[in-house]
Amino acid sequence: MSYRRKPNIAITIGDPAGIGPEVVLKSLRELVKICEPIVICDYEFLRKEAGRFKIRVPDVFYIDMANISKKVVPGKVNAICGRASYEYIELAIRLAQEKIVDAMVTAPITKEAFHAAGVKYPGHTEMLADLTGTKDYAMMLTGDCLRVVLVTIHTSLASVPGLIKKEKVLKKITLTANWLKKYMKLKKPVIAVSALNPHAGEGGMFGKEEIKEIFPAIKAAKKIKGVEIMGPVVPDTLFYKAMKGEYDAIVCMYHDQGLIPLKMVGFETGVNITLGLPIIRTSPDHGTAYDIAGKGIANPSSFIEAAKMAVYLAKNNKSIDNR
After folding, report:
1. What is the pLDDT of residue 215?
2. Are 270 and 286 in contact (CB under 8 A)?
3. Which domain, by its residues, includes 82?
4. In this predicted structure, what is the pLDDT of residue 318?
5. What is the count of structural domains for the chain?
6. Quick one: angle between helices 124-131 and 79-97, nearest 10?
7. Alpha carbon distance 214, 126 (integer Å)
8. pLDDT value of residue 2
């Protein structure tokens, strides 16, 4: 089927004390060219922010949550902002589940503000998974020509080896393969799985995680039809090969292993995609940037790229034309 309309995209402004409102406002003139933005916000607060930053925005559809009752101090953790940002996300999820919107793009929130507001979730991903009933999910980061999926995310480096288990690695590979087939329309995607240790453990001399967990996961993943799995690939050559286009995605073992090279090539255009959800969700690959909040200097490039990715994924989602 052909796609005959611009997709409806729910936009959440994130933590009002961070740079989310600013990057959303700066992005809207670009977004109206490719989608119908539905901005979930506190309208009066956002209107004042546009005036303060002297940002001219086009007419779009706003959903006013009217939940900011006090002055927001930029760059300061605030329970009211934590509750507001939670409610923006909650509504966006509901709209996506009810197919009122085709995808959602979320501006950054802070765990501290969530905690101050009594919100039980540590962040977007856990909240999205819980409210959509998703058991298996993964974080994919894209930037430039790289797509990186992480097996472990926000944990200490010392704890990573103990968290690398065959079942966990296999689930991330499977989620990546399914996403590449469904949304990128790749008939036979090539996925590289990184080793954990230097030289892939050198036969067990530098660690046995490759032998005990990663290779068995790769062996099991090779049974997935229509996908080519490579690895464990030694980390020091992995990204060189990826930049040459040898892989469609990379499964990395820990946060910095994947994100240092990705941010080196796509720092201002990185996009976070949550795999495994029954809805489409993307976000910019940056945080609330409290240190520059309220100064009018935030770069909207990553948010614009996140919205473009959401539009692309929505257009590739076959169910979209059935509404």
Report:
1. 96
2. yes
3. 1-134+277-323
4. 62
5. 2
6. 40
7. 25
8. 45
